[in-house]
Amino acid sequence: MIASLLIANRGEIACRIIRTAREMGIRTVAVYSDADAKALHVREADEVVHIGPSPARESYLVGAKIIAAAKATGAEAIHPGYGFLSENAEFAQAVMDAGLVWVGPKPSSITAMGLKDAAKALMADAGVPVTPGYMGANQDPAFLAEQAAEIGYPVLIKAVAGGGGKGMRKVDGAADFADALASCQREAAASFGNAHVLIEKYILTPRHIEVQVFGDTHGNIVHLFERDCSLQRRHQKVIEEAPAPGMDDATRQQLCAAAVRAAKAVDYVGAGTIEFIADASDGLRADRIWFMEMNTRLQVEHPVTEEITGVDLVEWQLRVASGEPLPLTQDDLTIEGWAMEARLYAEDPAKGFLPSTGPLELFQLPDHIGRVDTGVHEGAEVSPFYDPMIAKLIAHGEDREAARETLSEMLEDSAVWPVRTNAAFLIRALDHPDFVAGAVDTGLIGRDGEAMAAAPEPSAAALTNAAMAMVPRSLQAGFRLNAPGVRSAPFLLDGKRVDVALHGPGTDEPAPAMLVAEAGAVWQLTPWRVEGGAGGAASDGAILSPMPGKIIAVAVAAGEPVAKGQKLLTLEAMKMEHSLIAPFDGVVAELNATPGAQVQVEALLARIEAAG
Ligand code: ADP
Ligand code: ADP
Ligand code: MG
Fold first, then answer.
1. Secondary structure (DSSP) of 82-95
2. pLDDT at 479
3. DSSP code of 473?
4. What is the whole-number distance in angstroms between the Cα of residue 369 and the centre of ligand 2?
């Protein structure tokens, strides 16, 4: 068994690998860029090596620096994780040439599966059904258009070197083909340095079903059943599960046998995934499931397989890389229950899924239910340099519904701020009737995603609870005494005015601000502040008391001209002073404020009449 391991990655997958290595008594070495100096994987490793500036192409993608780091720390082996250099055959070869152990398949297997066209040709030869289409060398646009017509629209143009859901264009008819081809080729050249494309029949009612395979250096290859990754946004996985809903044993056996054949065809060693596309218009049928591509690495969603099989796939990777045979045979492997994973992203669904970066002032994920794989911690910073996935939440249950409910509960219990996450979006996706029914195709989010992405709003009860923590006991008592029936006060919720119903006794130590955390979303609630633009003044010039309080200064007199922004009076409330300002140029037409007076919320303190 190897005694030390360098992890050539970052984030949750680096932490995931460190966890198993530690359990196996293997010394771990982390590498990190400038942006990751304080990252969780750096904290958790036994030794760390700085490998350069923040951009990945100057650090995590520089093979020579990583090999040098392994040499310098005496690490015996290198685990590439996923992404970055994991499917780079040259890097795998360089690692071995440096006398190190590569935790992954042979470079020749990576190469054979590296380009989608060559991989499909190889698979067709091995008797694995492949997605119908054109995968030849001729890239002449007119010829490709003919091929598309022959395949029959809709078709999917795919960059042969593509990955991560990029470099794909669905084309619905001949009229759009030329433009789609040109733009796909441009994106492919820019993203992958290879403009070559293939054309596939676009499968209708598509479901993404993939099979986990594992090989060792003794010629054994097993499968660890399938995963369903059909809930996707723009060809990228959002929620994954295992097993696949609606998969019967006979279909599973045929599919998994095809996956093992595929792995054998490339003499596969280590963890790999064979991705298939299924036409699910008539349920899952073996004759309507086709090979799409192979990912020659550990997959992001590997935990759902671990949860249903009880196998630690990273442990298997390290054993196989050390020359051991697979710990279990095919007959030893069974499916226990159901598992579901959600990818938690630092992004704002309500703003077009824009990545959200910045400090994680609040980062709380459930620790009492389910499994959480994360690469960040409270106080860390989400940088703009890398993938915005900050955690994976994984639930395991007796059946699909149990796993779904637990995952939903886990997401509800997540609280991250001020960085935005897709937690509320994920909860809504889990609740979608088609998802609940296990009838998900890859187009679900495209069709119904808008409602899932809408900005969540806190409940009145959650707002009241938070608001009460900001209301001093004394003030609240007086307020209730003097104004029976008036039970709401204005606050700022993420900068926008909300009126919150108040009840109960208030608190001895009022908080200056509160976080309202509910259903995976977090908002900041602060007392209504008049300074800084938000203003307590209605457009008609009425200056209302934003909260119950005491007037401590009046800066103007009735009839006096005032300029926009000029301070009118100062109110003390919730242990803070608040200035009320003129909303526009005008004169003080009415003034009902005297220093020392107690005022109620929404009391009319002054009225400004616009000048001219
Ligand atoms: P999966 O999510 O099924 O494991 P993906 O193809 O989505 O597989 O890729 C997993 C990781 O690898 C992601 O971090 C993704 O961004 C990255 N990745 C995959 N292929 C590429 C590529 N060609 N270029 C850049 N990143 C890639
Ligand atoms: P990548 O390397 O980017 O992961 P894939 O070939 O695995 O590319 O395809 C990514 C996703 O695109 C699939 O999971 C599926 O949702 C969709 N897709 C791919 N091929 C087809 C097809 N022929 N018909 C319909 N959808 C497809
Ligand atoms: Mg894929």
1. SSTTTT-HHHHHHH
2. 46
3. H
4. 33
For residue 154, whether the previous peptide bond is cis, meaning omega lies within 30 degrees of 0, is yes
Res. 109: pLDDT tops 70: yes
**394, 339 contact by CB (below 8 A):** yes
Q: Round to whole Å and give the CA distance between 351 and 41.
A: 30
Average pLDDT, the chain: 92
* Per-residue confidence (pLDDT) for residue 166, from 0 to 100: 87
Distance CA 391, CA 419 (A): 13
What is residue 190's three-state secondary structure?
Answer: helix
Tokens of 374: 């994360």
> What confidence score (pLDDT) does residue 22 get?
98
Q: Tokens for 585, please give them.
A: 């140029």
Dist. CA 352 → ligand 1 center (Å):
21
Spatial CA neighbour of 215 closest among 76, 78, 316: 316
Q: Which residues are catalytic?
A: 297
Confidence (pLDDT) at 526: 87
Yes or no: say if 231 and 445 are a contact pair by the CB < 8 Å rule.
yes
Residue 538 has pLDDT above 80, yes or no: no
Q: Is the dihedral of CA 338, 339, 342, 343 positive or negative?
A: negative
Q: What is the pLDDT of residue 469?
A: 87
User: Residues with beta carbon inside 6 Å of ligand 1?
Assistant: 82-83, 163-164, 192, 236-237, 295, 299-300, 387
Q: Is 597 helix (H, G, I), strand (E, B) or coil?
A: coil
Task: For each of the domains in the chain, give its residue range(s) and CATH number, in order of start.
Answer: 4-103 (3.40.50.20), 106-131+206-336 (3.30.470.20), 137-201 (3.30.1490.20), 460-527 (no CATH), 538-610 (2.40.50.100)
Residue 8 in tokens: 């050539």
Nearest residue (by CA) to ligand 2, atom 17, is 235
CA distance 344 to 393: 7
State which amino acid sits at residue 178.
A
Q: Are 367 and 426 in contact (CB under 8 A)?
A: no
Judge contact between 574 and 470, C-beta under 8 A: yes
What pLDDT does residue 612 have? 67
Instruction: Name the residue at shortest CA distance from atom 13 of ligand 2.
Output: 235
Question: From ligand 1's centre to the CA of 293, what distance in Å?
Answer: 13
For residue 534, pLDDT over 60 is answered with: no
Distance CA 230, CA 283 (A): 14
Q: Rg of the chain over CA atoms, in angstroms? A: 30
Bridge partners for 497 per DSSP: 492
The DSSP code sequence of 553-578 is EE---TT-EE-TT-EEEEEEETTEEE
| Closest approach atom of ligand 1 to CA 301 | 4
The pLDDT confidence band at residue 532, using thresholds 50, 70 and 90, is very low
b/e per residue, 158-194, with b = 16+ CB within 10 A? bbbbbeeebbbbebeeeeebeebbeebbebbeeebee
How far is the C-alpha of 549 from the C-alpha of 605, rounded, in Å? Answer: 12
Query: Which of 234, 290, 292, 440 is the best mutation target for the ligand 2 pocket, counting ligand atoms within 8 Å of the beta carbon and taking the most?
Result: 292
**For residue 243, is the peptide bond before it cis, meaning its omega torsion is within 30 degrees of 0?**
yes
Could you say which DSSP state residue 611 is in?
P
Query: Cα separation of 476 and 486, whole Å?
Result: 11
Q: How many CB atoms lie within 10 A of CB 238?
A: 22
Return d(Cα 294, Cα 102) in angstroms, integer: 19
Please list, residue by residue across 135-150, b when 16 or more beta carbons sit within 10 angstroms of its beta carbon and e when fewer do.
Answer: beeeeeeeebbebbee
